[in-house]
Amino acid sequence: MKGIAFAPGHISAFFEPVFSKQSMDRSGSRGAGLSISLGAVSYVQVKPASQHTITVHVNGKPSSAPVTKLAINYLTSDTSFRIAVHTVIDLPVSQGFGMSAAGAFSAVLALSDLLNLSKDNALKAAHYAEIQSHTGLGDVVSSSFGGIEIRRKAGLPPWGLLEHIPGKYDVVLCVVGKKMQTKKILTDSTKIDEIASYGRYCTKKLLGKPSLEHLFSLGLDFTKKIGLADMTVLHAIESVNRYGMASMCMLGNSVFAIGNTPMLCKILSSFGTVFCCSIDEEGARVLHRR
Q1: Which of 72, 92, 171, 268 is the most exposed place for a label (fewest CB within 10 A)?
Q2: Which of 273, 288, 289, 264 is nearest to 97 (CA)?
Q3: What's the rounded Cα separation, in Å, for the pair 286 and 20?
Q4: Rounded to an integer, what distance in angstroms lies between the CA atom of residue 20 and that of residue 284?
Q5: Contact, 30 vs 15, CB < 8 A?
Q6: Nearest-angstrom CA–CA distance, 119 and 53
Q7: One CATH from 3.40.350.10, 3.40.50.720, 3.30.230.120, 3.20.20.70 for 1-290
């Protein structure tokens, strides 16, 4: 039997890191972003075994996949299985598209289905793995719910609280520069304090006037204030102002935009690799077994 699950990619426009000393359940981020139709599909096989082993292939190649393996270990706890995971990711890693979260979440979601565990078990396992690995903060929870979201409170339900901004849009993505090391930023206490301050401000402002337009304008303000965007990223964002709204993907040297899709694709293609997708409104889900 093979379990199959999909988790959408997720883009944060701005965020406030929240690290709880009480538990990882309450850690994560406040902020806003959107789940996208490009993400990760995982095919999982599991068999009882005397020794616990996990093998992971990503896009056909063997992978160390530390976040996925850690999430699986959280899910299976002390029970021994032989687990084989084959994950297909649609977008580059370390570019602010939430691919590590989508890969880990889709894998444990497929596995939880095979083991007759609930989606909540998979959500918790993937969230814990992301927090502990410093590869993301709010991607797993956002990916679980889908759509355009405002993360009012950080962490897993019932502590975490999300609000949706309704809407179905096409989204244009552009990878402008080299990978960004999320872990390096999330473990820099000075940078985290600066990001948290601006992120808190942007979340408060958006909650006062929730709309997609406001999300993008606050995202651009956040991008400029935290100083992680280089001139090429800023130039790419400014170049599409006439044809829509754009901002930087957190955390990556990438841009996301909504508006006149053909023109956005044409202009952004001169800055890097372009991907076209749409808002994923369903969130992470089991596809089927076979």
Answers
A1: 92
A2: 273
A3: 30
A4: 25
A5: yes
A6: 23
A7: 3.30.230.120
How far apart, in Å, are the Cα atoms of 146 and each of 162, 174, 275? 10, 21, 19
Rounded distance between C-alpha atoms, residue 76 and residue 288, angstroms: 21
DSSP code string of 167-208: ---EEEEEE-SS---HHHHHT-HHHHHHHHHHHHHHHHHHHH
What single-letter amino acid sits at 13?
A
Residue boundaries of the structural domains of the chain: 1-290
CA distance 167 to 37: 14
Question: CB–CB of 125/78 below 8 Å?
Answer: no
User: Nearest 5 degrees, angle CA 252-CA 254-CA 256?
Assistant: 120
pLDDT in tens, 60-107: 999 999 999 999 999 999 899 999 999 999 999 999 999 999 999 999
Q: With residue 232 as reference, give the H or E element that holds it.
A: helix 231-239
The residues with which 203 forms a beta bridge, in sequence order, are none
pLDDT 10s digits, 22-38 = 889 999 999 999 999 99
Is the whole model's pTM more than 0.90, yes or no? yes
List helix spans (H) across 85-148.
99-114, 119-133, 139-145
